[in-house]
Amino acid sequence: MQSFEQSMLTLITDTSTQLSPDVREAIDKANAKEDSGTRAALALSRITENIQMAEQKVSPICQDTGMPTFILHVPVGANQLEMEKAIKNAIATATKQGKLRSNSVDSLTGANTGDNLGPGTPVIHFHQWEKDYIDVRLILKGGGCENKNIQYSLPTELEGLGRAGRDLDGIRKCILHSIYQAQGQGCSAGFIGVGIGGDRTTGYELAKQQLFRHVDDVNPIEDLAKLEDYILEKGNTLGIGTMGFGGNTTLLGCKIGVMNRLPASFFVSVAYNCWAFRRQGVTIDPDTGAIQNWLYKEERPKVEKTAKSQEEAKSSNRQVVLTTPITEEQIRDLKVGDVVVINGLMHTGRDALHKYLMDNDSPVDLEGSVIYHCGPVMLKDDEGKWHVKAAGPTTSIREEPYQSDIIKKFGMKVVIGKGGMGAKTLKGLEEHGAVYLNAIGGAAQYYAECIKEVEGVDFLNFGVPEAMWHLKVENFAAIVTMDSHGNSLHADVDKSSLEKLAQYKETVFK
Predict the structure, then answer these.
(1) Is the pLDDT at 313 greater than 70, yes or no?
(2) Cis bond leading into 41, ω under 30°?
(3) What beta strand segments (E) does 358-500 contain?
(4) Are the C-beta atoms of residues 280 and 21 closer than 8 Å to each other?
(5) Contacts of 105 (CB under 8 A, 6+ apart)
(6) Which helix (H) or strand (E) holds 294?
(7) What mean pLDDT is predicted for residues 476-489?
(8) Cα separation of 324 and 160, whole Å?
(9) What's the CA gap between 303 and 211, in Å, rounded?
(10) Domain chopping of the chain, boundaries
């Protein structure tokens, strides 16, 4: 099984560092139709740049490499126990090499295993079939988009859309609502897989299976084919846009599957996936364990306008350069829409750190500082020096219970993350003279390039993603989406997209 293990390591590395051609084509099409000079155009330009950097450096596209989920179809008689062992060895090796972030955490203690192995991780599903080769598919679905999965039980009442019944039109409303509720927190523009029917468990599994379909395939069920086209068209009229900044593209793909259900239950399950849609597959020779074919690497036609030039994509909004420590006067001068470029020292902090700081002192002075919601991929060299391999933002809303209190307690002036935060944080920004910057979700290589040195680390016992890293940065750019004057782009986009959602309240599919 040594060759099989190497094949799995190759599959993991490729899935983490390269997007398949059908996904790239969907992103290029979105880039081509976005209005020049907008925040969405700037974000898509950075996304395109990040994709190229990840492939060239063979580094993770996004630092959150998610829950590795394998689906294998194997010939009768194949040794599944040995194959599972080989997959787990490959996962541990990929983690050690920095192709995966260590994401397996004990649910009771919070301890990180460090190698992505533990009860329930990775996820491996085996299915026997009568073919004479092994089919292996892998998806790396990050926690930010996983948190935007949603399941509906019909009939139900939906915000903006009213009653959704147990019929095709009720399903339509659920899917539209799932796009609205994701906003920019799942790193839109995104892809969705939908499972109709089943129970609560199999419905979600069916939804995730849809994400293994090619972006432009055609559903063999005519009604579902029509619904997929409808959702893709109407979802892009909601104006949520890339990163929730507003814009022309909110959805890049929609795939729907159906299975039978119990008479008492009618579930519509939606699996949301960010633009960093990392799924790949291979066929394996069962005798040698070697890769025979790649399943998502076919050549595709070039999109006429694959990317904006740097000058064309540049935001028309004001650009402000700040060097840490930052004063309240500098913060009060910022407004929603400004592009801020940070130089100096910033500190990472996620869930574990925020919880800790509520009741304890900080190991470093945070007055006038920048806190970055980020769980980076880090590697230590032979001399003991840490290097950043990937460092995009994590979803900020998880820190909503803590953020305002921590700003008040420690005097930090800038919070950087993705997807925005809520009313409590917005009030805290206004009261204490701070600002929230939205970085480009998933752009882990683009931001890693801005980090020039790791100056230190605290709380490694929390695990690498949750530790407090002290990073020296240059030209770290993000957009003001919540300012110190009570303005929030996220609240504005949520309100306007809800108004647009309401236009689809009337029955369409009978």
Answers:
(1) no
(2) no
(3) 370-372, 377-380, 386-390, 414-417, 435-438, 451-458, 468-482
(4) no
(5) 111, 112, 113, 118, 463
(6) strand 291-294
(7) 97
(8) 43
(9) 22
(10) 1-141+287-316, 143-273, 317-494
Contacts 24+ apart (CB under 8 A), 483-487: 483/334, 483/335, 483/336, 483/429, 483/435, 483/436, 484/331, 484/332, 484/334, 484/429, 484/430, 484/433, 484/434, 484/435, 485/332, 485/335, 485/430, 486/426, 486/427, 486/430, 487/335, 487/336
Contact at 8 Å (CB) between 434 and 484? yes
Q: Which residue has the tokens 């996962």?
A: 91
Report which residue type is found at 159: E
Closest CA to 281 of 3, 488, 1, 10: 10
Tokens of 212: 């293994």
What single-letter DSSP state applies at residue 276? S
Per-residue pLDDT tens digits for 150-159: 999 999 999 9
Percent of the chain's residues with pLDDT above 90: 92
Task: Please check the confidence at residue 302 and state whether its pLDDT lies above 80.
Answer: no
β-partners of residue 414 are 370, 435
Is 351 in a helix, a strand, or coil? Answer: helix
Element (H, E) at 128: strand 123-129
Pairing of strands 386-390, 377-380: antiparallel
Fold of 317-494: fumarase (3.20.130)
Average pLDDT of the chain to the nearest whole number: 95
Signed CA dihedral, 121, 127, 131, 132: sign only: positive
Position of tokens 């970085």? 439
Q: Mean pLDDT over residues 93-99, rounded?
A: 97
Q: Find tokens 């809800």 and name the residue.
A: 498
Question: pLDDT (tens digit, 9 = 90+) per residue, 223-240?
Answer: 999 999 999 999 999 999
Distance CA 362, CA 312 (A): 42
Q: Which helix (H) or strand (E) holds 195?
A: strand 190-196
